[in-house]
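lol forgot to send this yesterday, sorry. struct tokens for the thing we talked abt
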């Protein structure tokens, strides 16, 4: 049968040579039955029709071709292969002269799992179409679980789909409206939601809370997120975040507000960030943040419990890159408004801060030098309740060179820093400078092919005020700000086993300190073995002076996180602090496992315990069980968590299976800044 089709195709090429003079070399038609009526100039084909052209193929049950107008109509099971993903339709009309096509009842999908259902699409040009009665989703079902619905939009092949006046549905329930939604047909940008439920019946406040988030890609460059939190201890809060990103511009705007149900007050957080690369070597950065509260109560300001506090932070930076140096100019402003004192306190103004950061360059004979310069005109609290402007200048110059001798490399370095100020900390004019010297030496020895020794030695000394070479030996620290060395030893046994040792010594002294400065750090020994699906880690510490055991850690992980795994860990540490002495009689343990019970169900369990040596009793400090269910287009996760002396916490996470996975933490999707970072209450 296939041979017969090929013969018919070849014969038609000769029979239609005259009427098809333009198209004979461009198209090839194959079908079970082909008929041509010369008087009307119409060609029809039926049964397994395949039309091959230079840049596309069209499959259909039947076609009708008008030779005079060069217009083709295809019907039944239409499939168009023109992009990486095929397009399916009930019918298609295609004009060979204009290269424009019109399709009815269309279904298409992209490589990033965007499923598109249309009533019709009409060609504007070869690659752009007007689309009508659209359903856009990442669900592959005929009746998707969730989707955007719109009456009109635009489709650009292999690039993106744009729909206007879109309504987001879950099932048949409309949820929210967006004026424009753009879905990339190349990247993973999409939309999704998150739900978190917390139950803690033992608490008067925050016994039950519900946190939700909806994310959406508004376009290839814009992402939006809306958050609403219910019934939390602070009250109901909501906010939004808009993010814009292109090759040269990154910006976002975030606002969140929460109504305190106890004090009946409203608190605000507004934040914005902007980065713009104007040219290859010129960039602009800005940041702004406002935090407002009418009834502020914070552990940062326990005395002022009834006052209101509004805080504003802003930042602007201009950076120009040259061939040998980066020039930066920064402006920063921070202020607080205190309602009790009815005035605005300005804790910090840096206007401007100018810095020149030179690149490392070869001076001569392999010596590397790197200068750095910084100037700032700062208004701040330099001493208690003493606010004033202060000029500060800093210049640093560093030299370094690497010497290689057989199996050893020596890298000495020398750094000198000049500091200049025009006032002392009390605000009096006092033009002074002091100098800091910082020699150092890094040594790396390849003892054998499987062992390295690394020794780092550093010292930083400070001169007296207005002196270049007389050191400040009358100060409490004798003018020595940093002095010590670090030794590490790395051994590689095969390609699976690594052993490391490290220890450091501190030479610093302080004549005003009543307690002895710890000289030796603990000697740390770490052993790691890794092979395929198993990892073993043992880490042990020893005090040097006096020599005694300090700490021990053991951890083993077997399996793979995406399939099944088992982990076990032990931690013990000896404390010299009398208040922590009881910990010297305890060993902390962790145990966990995870397994896919089926292709749809996953179970994770993690337990933290403490073993008491005195009573030989193991106490469960924390336990958590996570259950995950794959619901086609959704992820459902339930977590039961119990902490010692507290009630059970229950978390429920329900999200759409788009760009978000169950393994992400709840905080990553629910809310970034609800005010907890500045607002807390004790009862």
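and heres what i got for the seq, position by position
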């Amino acid at each position: 049968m296939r041979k017969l089709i090929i013969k018919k195709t070849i014969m038609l090429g000769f029979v239609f040579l005259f009427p098809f003079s333009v198209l004979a070399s461009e198209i090839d038609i194959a079908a079970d039955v082909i008929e041509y009526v010369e008087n009307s100039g119409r060609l029809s084909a039926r049964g397994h029709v395949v039309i091959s052209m230079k840049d596309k193929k069209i499959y259909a049950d039947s076609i009708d071709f008008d030779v005079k107008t060069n217009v083709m109509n295809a019907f039944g099971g239409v499939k168009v292969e023109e992009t990486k993903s095929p397009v399916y339709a009930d019918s298609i009309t295609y004009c060979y002269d204009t290269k424009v096509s019109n399709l009815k009842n269309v279904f298409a999908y992209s490589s990033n799992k965007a499923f598109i259902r249309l009533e019709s699409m009409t060609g504007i040009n070869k690659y752009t179409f007007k689309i009508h009665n659209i359903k856009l989703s990442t669900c592959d079902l005929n009746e998707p679980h969730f989707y955007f619905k719109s009456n009109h939009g635009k489709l650009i092949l292999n690039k993106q789909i744009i729909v206007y006046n879109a309504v987001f549905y879950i099932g048949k329930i409309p949820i929210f409206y967006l004026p424009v939604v753009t879905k990339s047909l190349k990247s993973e940008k999409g939309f999704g939601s998150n739900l978190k439920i917390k139950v803690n019946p033992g608490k008067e406040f925050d016994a039950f809370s519900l946190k939700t988030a909806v994310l959406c890609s508004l376009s290839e460059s814009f992402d939006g997120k809306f958050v609403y939190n219910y019934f939390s201890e602070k009250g109901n809060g909501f906010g939004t975040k808009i993010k814009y990103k292109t090759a040269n511009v990154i910006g976002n705007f975030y606002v969140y507000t929460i109504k305190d149900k106890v004090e009946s007050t409203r608190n605000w957080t507004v934040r914005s960030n902007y980065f713009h690369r104007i040219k290859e070597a010129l960039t602009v950065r800005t940041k702004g943040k406002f935090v407002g509260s009418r009834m502020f109560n914070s552990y940062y300001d326990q005395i002022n419990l009834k006052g209101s506090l509004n805080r504003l932070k802003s930042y602007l930076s201009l950076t120009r890159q040259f061939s040998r140096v980066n020039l930066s100019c920064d402006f920063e402003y921070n202020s607080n408004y205190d309602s009790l004192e009815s005035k605005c306190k300005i804790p910090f103004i840096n206007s401007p801060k100018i810095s020149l950061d030179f690149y490392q360059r070869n001076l001569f004979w392999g010596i590397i030098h790197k200068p750095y310069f910084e100037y700032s005109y700062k208004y701040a609290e330099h001493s208690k309740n003493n606010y004033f402007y202060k000029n500060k200048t800093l210049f640093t110059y560093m030299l370094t060179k690497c010497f290689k001798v057989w199996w050893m490399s020596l890298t000495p370095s020398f750094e000198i820093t000049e500091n200049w100020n025009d006032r002392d900390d009390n605000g009096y004019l006092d033009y002074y400078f002091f100098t800091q010297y910082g020699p150092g030496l890094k040594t790396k020895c390849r003892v054998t092919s499987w062992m390295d020794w690394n020794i780092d030695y550093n010292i930083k000394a400070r001169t007296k005020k207005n002196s270049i070479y007389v050191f400040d030996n009358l100060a409490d620290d004798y003018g020595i700000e940093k002095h010590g060395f670090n030794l590490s030893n790395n051994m590689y046994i095969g390609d699976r086993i690594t052993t490391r040792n490290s220890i450091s010594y501190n030479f610093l002294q302080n004549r005003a300190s009543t307690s002895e400065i710890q000289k030796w750090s603990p000697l740390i020994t770490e052993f790691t073995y890794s092979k395929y699906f198993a990892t073993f880690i043992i880490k042990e510490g020893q005090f040097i002076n006096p020599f005694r055991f300090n700490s021990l850690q053991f951890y083993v992980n077997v399996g793979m996180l995406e399939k099944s795994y088992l982990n076990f860990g032990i931690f013990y540490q000896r404390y010299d602090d009398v208040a922590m002495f009881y910990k010297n009689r305890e060993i902390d343990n962790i145990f966990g496992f995870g397994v896919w019970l089926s292709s749809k169900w996953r179970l994770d369990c993690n337990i933290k315990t403490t073993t008491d040596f005195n009573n030989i009793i193991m106490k469960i400090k924390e336990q958590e069980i996570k259950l995950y269910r794959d619901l086609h287009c959704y992820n459902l996760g339930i977590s039961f968590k119990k902490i010692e002396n507290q009630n059970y916490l229950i978390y429920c996470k329900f999200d759409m299976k788009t760009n978000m996975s169950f393994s992400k933490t709840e905080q990553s999707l629910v809310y970034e800044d609800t005010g907890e970072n500045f607002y807390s209450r004790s009862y």
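Confidence is low (pLDDT under 50) at residues 1-25, 295-307, 659-683. anyway ping me if u want another try
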